[in-house]
Input
Amino acid sequence: MALKKKASKIPVKKTKKVTTQKKAAAKKPAKKSSKTVAKKVAKDSIEDSLLELIRVTSAELPDDVQKVILEALEREEKNTSAEYAMNIIKANIELAKKKSQPLCQDTGTVIFYVSHPVGFNQTKFSDKILKAVTLATKKGYLRQNSVDSLTGENSGLNVGPGHPSIHFHEHAKKTVEVKLMLKGGGCENVGAQYSLPHTALGAGRDLDGVRKVILDAVHKAQGKGCGPGVLGVCIGGDRGAGYMESKEQLFRKLDDQNSHPELKKLEKEIVETSNKLGIGPMGFGGKTTLLGCKISALNRLPASFFVSISYMCWAYRRQGVELSGNNQIKKWLY
Amino acid sequence: MKKINYPFSAEEMRDLKVGDMVLITGKLYTGRDAVHKRLHDGVKPPVDLKNQIIYHCGPVILQDPKTKEYKVTAAGPTTSIREEPYQADVMKDYGIVGVIGKGGMGAKTLAGCKEYGCVYFHAIGGAAQVLAEKIDKVTGVHWLDLGSPEAIWELAVTDFPVVVTMDAHGNSLHAEVESKSNDALKKFL
Output
């Protein structure tokens, strides 16, 4: 995987080198100027690395997601609209990567999770993120997707109150890790939050109640969230924390194992049951309604029992990088 | 696989049935939330929509800084149900004969399809590259003041792949799947 990205990164790097060399040549072709060039590259590389992260996230699906999509294609009956949909999805994944263009035109809410060591300057890093997002929009890696909720005005830059969404987290490691998710509006709209007990569904304050409301959310979503999709679920928390945690669950790899045995069982059960509902790809009817489900739990107040569900479309765009000391991309995380 | 070519007509749409896989060639107009609201508010459309197809889509468009030409780089469908309050009226008032979107629409639109000879075509959600490849050219843009994703883009397409999920005879695949999956769900609750 790292190899593939390295290959696609080459043109970006080349352009950079050419321009800096040109600048240096215009000034002085002396030894001293090559030092300045080296410094300049190091200084600019946070933005370059973030831009590359955005490009790859928008155009390429992580391997774990591609794998389950191909399995879903195999499962569908031949010559049905479900199989037709999955075939177009497969072709789209290949084409987006080849052309290095957005998999889906809705490049979504741009959500960054940055894990950093003690003493890290969050203000400066946020500023770099804003610059990279603006540049990525100009380059067409991101659609002009940020609208003023009061005036309806689109700044065209993807920057404004709440956009992009940036979350910082201090960790014990010395490295900086940046994870990115592009979450489209169609699937965000079918997310749901339930408060247990839920009389109409006969869902009580236990794991069976949790199971019932999750299945209800899958049914309500039908094909509107661009299924087959993946669920991120949080049991507990307050309304805000619950939704946040449900999104963070979507950063887990699809083939990981929940360390909590009951939640592990529930994740599996939700996927199996959902795939018996017959909603299928795009809601056309078919065998695969869900590609995965990830669940975690936060503590709650005695009075509250929320179940928060985030739905991710098949165009599950998430990536992450570990940055080196000079802010180059050292490792891809998915 | 069926093919329909521009100019479109209500008669031709009435021949289509739920489940038909169709390739569309000719002209499409994009129109999503802000366009539908503005039309519904009574603003006259900037183009004649009679016998046209509206595509629920907010594309990624790049403009060449020198030639000023527009290029579509990603163009999949957006969720159609948000236009449910308006769609049937747009059929009635402006004579559109086709809607392309994703996720399907409700009873009001289905009744409109039957009355005015219109079909709802489902494009594959998220397949922005496959669908952008079928767009040969941007032939015009209107209401750009709504922002690029919300503007009316006039697109020339060849063999644009869609599936009929709501026809002009009152059939809806979405209503059928909704009802069947609801019966299945009851067994698990």
